[in-house]
Structures are given as C-alpha cells and as structure tokens.
C-alpha cells in the first residue's frame, strides 16, 4: 500500500520534525501550514532531499472549506491519505478563566478540537473500506495539559486537549473494526516556537529544572513516538496514549 501522510501544522516544531523523520520511512508527505510559507518550503526541500515525494499546502484547519481544499490537493498530487497526524494547535496568553474572551475560546476550540475532528472525518472518507479505502492510521497530538489542567494559565488549552483525548478514545473504538487505528501522543515541555504564543518564548528553559528529568524535550523525541504509533510496528495499538513529558 502506498503510504500518503498528511501532517497538519508541519512547517515548524513537532510537525516539521515528524515530516523529516517520516521522509526516511517511505511516506509521501503533505506539509500543511497556516501562514509561514518560508518555513514550510524549507522543510519540504529537506524532505525531498531525503528522497521522499512531498508538497506544501497552506490551509487553516479550523475551517472545513480549507480542509476540503487541503485534502483535494493531496488526492490529486500524492494520492488518497492513508496516514494523518493532527498536529496543528494553538495557545493563548496565560490568564484566568474569568479573563478569557469568547473569541479566544472559540479560536482555541476550533483549532485544537474541531480541526482535528474535521481532518479525521475527511481522512476517514479516504481510509474506510466503505469509501473505497484500505484502512489507515491517525495520530493526534494532545498534551499532558489534558490531565494536569493548566490552572491559572491555560485551562482552555488543557480542556481542548482533554476533548482531543476523548475524541481519540471514542474514534479508535468506532473505526477499529474497519482497519483504522487512532492514537495520541501527549508532550510536556518541548523546545519549539509554540510557547511564544503564551507570551513567554523561553518558558521551557525557565521551567525545565523542576521536571523529574530536569530538562525539556525535543521535537525529534516526540516525532519518534508519533512515527511509531503511525506505523505497522504499532499494529495492535489503538486508543493508546504515549506521554512524552520527562516524568511530569
Ligand atoms: P509550533 O512550533 O508553534 O508549530 C505550530 C504549527 O501549527 C505550525 O506549523 C503552524 O503553522 C501550524 N498551525 C497553527 N495553527 C494552524 C491552523 N489553524 N491551521 C494549520 N496550521 C496551523 O508548535 P509545536 O510546539 O510544534 O506544537 C505542535 C502541537 O504540539 C500542538 O498541537 C501543541 O498543542 C502540541 N504540544 C506542544 C507542546 C510544546 O511544549 N511545544 C507541548 C504539548 C503539546 P505556521 O508555521 O504557518 O504558523
């Protein structure tokens, strides 16, 4: 089976590390991004240099029309999606719930919850035998915040990842009989640009000393777990979570 992998939000950070690791594992790869064209093209060039077929597609995964356009590009240029990593996510500045605006909450939920659900829907329309597919594998990028709660900082973000965890469990059971596995990784403090969204780009460096392992994690360490769950090596794993949080 040809392996066609869509990684949402793969211009930078964990998604980019996943694309680079997947390049050596026989996948055709779609690098999706929101606005950072230069970073997406840079990763795509590196992926192609490793011998993998790859394209970049700009699309906001919080909008179904854009998701439909994204999957149509993948259909025509790489083939129907067999593997999906729901990685794109957002975060807002640290504050308490009484200070959170409706706009902030809607953006958080649309990007971190509705987006992965809609991307899964459109992937399933290509993976499920009832729609002409041959099965597939989905990995959701959640966060240990889903079980820690992120009080006084980002309860909305933690709740969005909690919803993604429930979605992972429910969908895994729904499509297991049809040959689609659905799993998730839950990173902790990882060195990426993500923390700048909270207003503190050096957050991991400041907090890593308090972790049991005494250090933050790398995007490459998360990518290893994503690629394992995605692959046939994890053929009996579905509804499974791998926490990558240095013991947190
Ligand atoms: P990052 O380095 O900031 O990269 C975020 C990626 O998502 C970028 O490629 C960005 O595209 C893309 N993106 C954002 N909103 C999007 C949208 N609406 N549609 C399409 N793409 C969108 O972040 P990261 O640290 O790699 O985070 C990746 C995932 O890991 C997120 O789901 C995050 O919640 C999760 N996570 C991260 C950490 C951590 O410590 N870093 C911990 C736990 C969980 P542009 O480049 O175009 O902006």
Question: Can you tell me the CATH superfamily?
Answer: NAD(P)-binding Rossmann-like Domain
- Largest sheet features: 7 strands, parallel
What structural class do the secondary elements suggest?
Answer: alpha/beta
Estimate the strand proportion. 15-25%
Named once each, the bound ligands are: NADP nicotinamide-adenine-dinucleotide phosphate
CATH T-level fold name: Rossmann fold
Structure summary:
By secondary structure, the protein is α/β, with parallel strands linked by helices. 42% of the residues lie in helices and 16% in strands.
Provide an overview of this structure:
The structure is a single chain. This protein has helices at 13-22, 37-49, 64-77, 102-127, 145-148, 155-175, 203-207, 219-230; strands at residues 3-7, 27-33, 54-58, 83-86, 136-141, 180-187, 241-244. It is of the alpha/beta class. Strand 1 (3-7), helix 1 and strand 2 form a beta-alpha-beta unit. The mean pLDDT is 98. The chain binds NADP nicotinamide-adenine-dinucleotide phosphate (NAP). NADP nicotinamide-adenine-dinucleotide phosphate binds next to helix 1 and strand 2.
Q: Layout of SSEs?
A:
Blueprint: E1 3-7, H1 13-22, E2 27-33, H2 37-49, E3 54-58, H3 64-77, E4 83-86, H4 102-127, E5 136-141, H5 145-148, H6 155-175, E6 180-187, H7 203-207, H8 219-230, E7 241-244
Parallel strand pairs: 1-2, 1-4, 2-3, 4-5, 5-6, 6-7
The chain binds NADP nicotinamide-adenine-dinucleotide phosphate.
């Amino acid at each position: 089976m040809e392996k066609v992998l869509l990684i949402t939000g793969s211009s930078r950070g964990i998604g980019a590390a996943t694309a680079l690791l997947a390049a050596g594992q026989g996948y055709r790869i779609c690098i999706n991004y929101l606005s950072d064209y230069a970073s997406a093209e840079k990763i795509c060039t590196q992926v192609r240099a490793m011998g993998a077929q790859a394209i970049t597609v700009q699309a906001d995964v919080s909008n179904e029309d854009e998701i439909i356009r994204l999957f149509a590009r993948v259909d025509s240029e790489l083939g129907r999606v067999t593997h999906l990593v729901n990685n794109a996510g957002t975060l807002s500045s640290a504050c308490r719930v009484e200070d959170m605006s409706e706009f902030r909450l809607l953006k958080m939920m649309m990007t971190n919850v509705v987006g992965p659900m809609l991307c899964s829907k459109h992937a399933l329309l290509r993976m499920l035998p009832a729609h002409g597919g041959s099965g597939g594998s989905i990995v959701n990028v959640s966060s240990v915040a889903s079980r820690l709660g992120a009080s006084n900082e980002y309860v909305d973000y933690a709740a969005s990842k909690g919803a993604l965890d429930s979605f992972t469990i429910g969908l895994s059971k729904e499509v297991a009989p049809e040959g689609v596995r659905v799993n998730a990784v839950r990173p902790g403090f990882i060195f990426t640009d993500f923390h700048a969204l909270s207003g503190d780009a050096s957050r991991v460096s400041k907090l890593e000393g308090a972790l049991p392992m005494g250090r933050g994690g790398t995007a490459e360490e998360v990518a290893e777990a994503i690629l394992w769950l995605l692959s046939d090596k994890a053929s009996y794993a579905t509804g499974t979570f791998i926490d990558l949080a240095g013991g947190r």
